[in-house]
Amino acid sequence: MSLDRVQDLLSCPNCGSEMVLDAGRLQCALGHSFDVAREGYVNLLGGAEPANADTTAMLAARGRVQSAGVFAPVAEVVAHLARSRSPVLDAGAGTGYYLAAALGDEQAAVGVGIDVSKAAARQCARADARIGAVVADVWQRLPVVDRSVGVVLSVFAPRNLGEFVRVLQPDGRLVSVTPRPDHLAELRAAHDLLDVPTGKAEQLVAAAAEFFDLVDTRVVRYRFDAGAELARDLIAMGPNAFHTVPAEVGATTVGIDVTVQSFRPLQA
Ligand SMILES: C[S@@+](CC[C@H](N)C(=O)[O-])C[C@H]1O[C@@H](n2cnc3c(N)ncnc32)[C@H](O)[C@@H]1O
Ligand SMILES: [Zn+2]
After folding, report:
1. Which residues in the chain land under pLDDT 50?
2. Rounded distance, CA 134 to CA 89, Å?
3. 208 CB contacts (<8 Å, ≥6 apart)?
């Protein structure tokens, strides 16, 4: 809940100028002004939340899954690749779990969590005192100053590569997590859920080549014994929750299978 710590990193969504926090409002030099919500986040979206923004119920399910440690080894690799590179921007931050992990135990580190969902921003603002949470659309110009952040995180979230390279310091890093086809495969097969397409990490390398060099790739693969409630939360936290969460979900061992990649901006 610390917009004051990150105000220097934020730029006005209307005119691009710098912003300052004053009496519960974030304001730019031209007088564009945005209220800080009671819960500590600021909404810079300038429009209605899209229909596919994650809901409060999805966020709550994801929070329980993350608190149970299901993704802890993934967060550890993300934190390792992001280490000592504050400020950190998490684009599609959700609960703020990976952003908090990336800040590590450095008290001076700061992070901005952007998400198009207000429910996510609410939760992200609570995740860590070093995080400022912002509602914004990753597909628009990011409300973040040029060359200001040391790391952009993109964890299971949409990627606007041109904007990521704009906001990164020249020696910064983009750290991404993409699912591999076996990710949560047991749950998908048992409950007829959406598949993960193959080759997501490779497609990202190809799409990023215009802006980034790939510098590190790690496959993180392990199994986790999930009780029935956790198995249900694993379904409820994802895109399937927009359709239906099956009533009967039993305890199961799930496979976590993801690629974590680190990219460096191409040098001009
Ligand atoms: C699958 S969740 C991942 C969240 C988080 N990174 C995690 O792994 O826990 C994807 C997140 O991206 C957000 N999102 C989807 N489209 C977005 C957009 N256009 N701009 C910003 N955030 C977006 C969703 O609201 C959701 O919180
Ligand atoms: Zn402005």
Report:
1. none
2. 10
3. 161, 174, 214, 263
Q: Is the CB of 117 under 6 A from ligand 1?
A: yes
Centroid of ligand 1 to alpha carbon of 238 (angstroms): 10
The reply to whether the predicted model has a pTM over 0.85 is yes
Q: How many CB atoms lie within 10 A of CB 124?
A: 33
CA distance 81 to 89: 14
Segment 106-135, tens digit of pLDDT: 999 999 999 999 999 999 999 999 999 999
Which domains can be identified in the chain, with CATH numbers? Answer: 3-265 (3.40.50.150)
Q: Is 176 in the pocket of ligand 1 (CB under 6 A)?
A: no
Atom nearest to 154 CA in ligand 1:
6
Which residue's CA is the nearest one to ligand 1's atom 13?
A: 92
List alpha helices for 7-117, DSSP H.
56-67, 72-82, 97-103
157 lines ligand 1 (CB under 6 A): yes
- Residue closest via CA to ligand 1's atom 9 equals 94
Say what the pLDDT of residue 189 is. 86
Contacting residues for 16 by C-beta, under 8 A, at least 6 apart: 141
Structure confidence at residue 243 (pLDDT): 66
Q: How far, in Å, from the CA of 35 to the mean position of ligand 1?
A: 22
Specify the residue with its C-alpha closest to ligand 1, atom 17: 116
- Contact call for residues 237 and 156 (beta carbons, < 8 A): no
Separation between Cα atoms, residue 234 and residue 72, nearest integer Å: 14
Question: Which pLDDT tens digit goes with each residue over 224-255?
Answer: 999 999 999 999 998 776 667 777 888 999 99
What's residue 242's pLDDT? 65
